[in-house]
Amino acid sequence: MATLTITTPSDREVRVTRVFDAPRPMVFDCWTVPELLKGWLHGPDGWRLEICEIDLKVGGAARYVWRHRDGQAMGMSATYREIVRPSLIVATELFDEDWTGGETLG
Q1: N or C, which end of the chain is more exposed by having fewer CB within 10 Å?
Q2: pTM of the full predicted structure?
Q3: Is-cis flag, bond preceding 86, omega within 30?
Q4: For residue 4, which of 21, 16, 15 has the smallest C-alpha distance?
Q5: What is the pLDDT of residue 16?
Q6: What's the domain count of the chain?
Q7: How far apart are CA 94 and CA 106, in angstroms?
Q8: What is the domain range of residue 63?
Q9: How does pLDDT run across 19-78, given as a tens digit for each residue?
Q10: CA-CA distance, 22 to 3, in Å (whole number)?
């Protein structure tokens, strides 16, 4: 199991750090290659990542749509703000039916 640390360096920043027993390029690819991301980013029981589109460049976009086995869908869009392969991905994220009150930085 990977070690997970979540900190809040400021009132507008959440930092998630996870350590995996795998090469950094492999972990980076698991976050940025649609076929790999669809293999693990499922969500709660009954949900599957159905649509995963990634334009991996600063200013590029990502689109994710999860579907529940009952047919319900949940979508999210992201815009990449900073990319340092293989160590850093900064993106803003916004769910289609947003409950956060605005764009979030992920």
Answers
A1: N
A2: 0.79
A3: yes
A4: 16
A5: 83
A6: 1
A7: 10
A8: 3-105
A9: 889 999 999 999 999 999 999 998 889 999 999 999 999 999 999 999 999 999 999 999
A10: 12
- List 16's β-bridge partners, or say none: 6
Token pair in block for residue 91: 């993106």
Q: Please report, for the domain that includes residue 96, its CATH number.
A: 3.30.530.20
Q: What is the 3-state secondary structure (H, E, C) of the chain?
A: CCEEEEEEEECCEEEEEEECCCCHHHHHHHHHCHHHHCCCCCCCCCEEEEEEEECCCCCCEEEEEEEECCCCEEEEEEEEEEEECCCEEEEEEEECCCCCCCCEEC
- Cβ neighbours around 76 below 10 Å, total: 17
Q: Output the pLDDT for position 20.
A: 87
> What whole-number distance in Å separates Cα of residue 77 and Cα of residue 56?
13
